[in-house]
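WARN retry 2 of 3 for item q-0093 after timeout on previous attempt; input resubmitted unchanged.
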Amino acid sequence: MALLFLILQIITGLVLAFYYIPSINEAFWSIDHIMRDVKYGWLIRYMHANGASFFFFALYAHIFRTLFFASFIGKHRTWGSGIIIFMLVMLTAFFGYVLPWGQMSYWAATVITSLVSVVPLGEELLKYILGGFAVGQAALGRIFALHFVLPFVILMMVGVHLFLLHEEGSSDNLGDSHQNDDVSFHPLFSIKDILGYVFIIMMFVIIVCFYPQSLGHPINYQEADPEVTPAHIVPEWYFLVYYGMLRAIPHKGLGIAITGVSVLLFFSIPWLVNETLVRNGRFRILYMCWVIILITILILVGWFGACIPETPFIEVSLSLTVLYLILVTFGILLIVFLERFLV
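OK item q-0093 returned
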């Protein structure tokens, strides 16, 4: 499903690039031109905008499924390449969110790029990234170029990911990578995948045709105005987890560090969760509870990240962020120790 929506994003993005104008004076109105004047432009634009959400949904489902079944055991390179793909997708989606040059797009770019200033030599680095002292014409041109190129890099990384999976092998429902009794792909898995495609495409068609703006923010349908700051800046839903962590920590530098660590910690999971007599996660009760609690915490952090930044939402987000870091570092080590002791 993720590959399906990645290809859809590339195709619709290429079509939109024919009409989009990367200019701070014309970007917003070029989107309006696509929606109103280009034949079926509204369909292509809504497919691209909502396709990003469906792509992230498939990506998150794939990551959490891999966590739940502990399919990453013995597949360190495959897992690492998958996390790299996830980080590239987040970067590409952020660039794409800026391109419509609406109010939320502009101020999201201003807030996120300003975070670079906290690192050593950040002020000089920020000027180089933006091509000036603020988000403007130079920055928009560079963001458009990167947003156009990165999907092809992601597609290449998907090929690397599949190659590594072929080299390291996939596991069956019992967590065994060495299959002696192979099951043919057709008809069991092919029919199962087709049913999955039919379901997700039906949902996608319903959203695009009947609720195309339900996943966006209404303020972003106003042209960017550097002199008017929105009362409440909210990113797309797939950024809310990390935005909630970033916003909950009062110190900007510490917030960036912890948010970055929260992503990088996923790299370490295959090394923390060692192989036991039982490899499949659903047969390891303590591990399964850890995954469920972890996913619940991430959903709650995202939920509070969408709330107004005031008490008690900030305090709750901070507490959940600390709990998340403890679970990923010390919690998983404790569970692995208990599993080995009990076994």
